[in-house]
Please model this.
Amino acid sequence: MEKIYENAKTAVFWDIGSCDVPDGVDVDSITSNIRSALSNMKYFGPISFFAYGDTTVMKEEIVDEISRTIFLLQQVKGEGDRFHAFGAIAMAMFFWAKHNPGPANFLLISGNKDFSYALTQFRKSGCNVLLGHPKREASGPLTRKASAVWHSETLLAGGSPLPFSPKWKTSHKLKTFEYKYSDTSAASSFSSPKRP
Model:
């Protein structure tokens, strides 16, 4: 990890439909678990937490427990439809980056491979990408964009990332953070992929 990211802001985007709460993990402890996992990797900057899921089909107790944490829980209609979650999260990531210029870390907790293009754009803008993906659903296009990769079940429990693999990391130069896109162009750049 480059030192420029150690004290940078970090935004956590949790796709609950793709990465459910692991068995045996207390929802109330998830934010502290993620903080611990990041701190162990020497990420000490302030952290913003965002979660996305279809609250109409999630267990009521899970919704209540997440709502009591510092996660900002956003409703995404169409549980199990990766396109809905992709559109909501990709747009949120872009707007967070736009309003938080400077070196930044993005921690995406999702197994949705449609995020590959968006993560590429964030890396080109100088962002450091971190990834938590479900153990059952490893995605090469996603892991290759990340400087550190966890199984989401391990990350949400506060564990360590997977051993480093050179194929996950591609070299990139830090560029000046300049978001020159209008809100309209941003929406088109990060729109959901067309359905097959």
